[in-house]
Amino acid sequence: MKTVPLGTTNTQVPNIVAGMMRIADSTDEQIRALYTAAREAGINFFDHADLYGFNHPDGGPHLCERRFGEALKLSSAGHEQITLQTKTGIVAAP
């Protein structure tokens, strides 16, 4: 898979990123399967944000990040050389 530099760093990431915005309703097994399929396809760059899953019934800030992390702990796919990108910005108080 073609890689490109991440910004001005020496970190190389694939030109395809796996977005995790929609995993709030997924089971841990489904998230692990998504991660495994991405790794097998050569994808090692995963995009998150603190607001992904915020309005989910089980949600709140960082829901998708937490769900991905829990699934990742149980995954048998390789964890070396992965890049996690996150964004922040939820305003917690008026």
UniProtKB/TrEMBL annotation:
Q: Where is the NADP-dependent oxidoreductase domain?
A: 16-88
One cellular component GO annotation, for this chain's record? cytosol
InterPro entries assigned to the protein according to its UniProt record, in alphabetical order: AKR_Detox_Biosynth, NAD(P)_OxRdtase_dom_sf, NADP_OxRdtase_dom
- Domain of life assignment: Bacteria
Record PANTHER family = NADH-SPECIFIC METHYLGLYOXAL REDUCTASE-RELATED (PTHR43364), OXIDOREDUCTASE YDHF (PTHR43364:SF1)
Name of the protein: Aldo/keto reductase family protein
